Amino acid sequence: MSTRYARAAAFFLTGALLTSPIQSAVAGSESSPLVTITYPTGARVQAELADTPQKRSRGLMFREQLAPDAGMLFRFEEAGEWSFWMKNTKVALDILWIGQDKKIADIEENVPPCRQDPCPEYKPGKEALYALELPAGSVKRERLAKGMKLTFELPK
């Protein structure tokens, strides 16, 4: 199967610029609904949903920081080996690729912001229907591993 690309970057949350975690710091950009994702331990994260080509392309670009309990869930139309790059990212991220069964298919930890051109790409070893970007260190802190099942419901 051919590789598909999705852009990834950091999530911007500052009290001075935002009134809620789903509002973007970039003027004119569209807000995304939040999806509550529950880890096997019971801990939860609120993830912005990137479910359109435009939202997936923009990802978390140009954001200065990411709250420990925030992230972005990318939903694709079909399973694939979706690649990510960190163009215009300002913070390090953990990336989880998640299968249709909502089990973690692959993990890339502590992916640094891109400081050169071209940016390196990060690709899973298995097909995934979703990808979840979290603040770097989340995988270790929450003891997440391949094969673990996450719980979440997408808005209709």
DSSP strand content = 35-45%
Q: Secondary-structure element sequence?
A: EEEHEEEEEEH
Largest sheet: 6 strands, mixed
- What is the CA-based Rg, rounded? 14 Å
CATH class: Mainly Beta
Summarize model confidence as the mean pLDDT: 82
How would you describe this structure to a colleague?
- By secondary structure, the chain is mostly beta strands.
- The chain contains two helices and nine strands, in the order βββαββββββα.
- The protein has one domain (4-142): Sandwich (Jelly Rolls).
- The chain has a six-stranded mixed beta sheet. A three-stranded mixed beta sheet has the order 1-5-8.
- Helix 1 (53-58) links the parallel strand 3 and strand 4 (70-80).
- The longest helix is centred in the middle third of the chain and has 6 residues, at 53-58.
Notable characteristics:
156 residues; mainly beta; Jelly Rolls; six-stranded mixed β-sheet; three-stranded mixed β-sheet; 9 strands; 7% helix; disordered N terminus
Summed up:
With 156 residues, the chain is mainly β. The chain has helices at residues 53-58, 138-142, and strands spanning 4-7, 34-38, 44-50, 70-80, 82-85, 93-98, 104-111, 121-122, 128-135.
SSE blueprint and pairings:
Layout: E1 4-7, E2 34-38, E3 44-50, H1 53-58, E4 70-80, E5 82-85, E6 93-98, E7 104-111, E8 121-122, E9 128-135, H2 138-142
Parallel strand pairs: 1-5, 3-4
Antiparallel strand pairs: 2-3, 4-9, 5-8, 6-7, 6-9
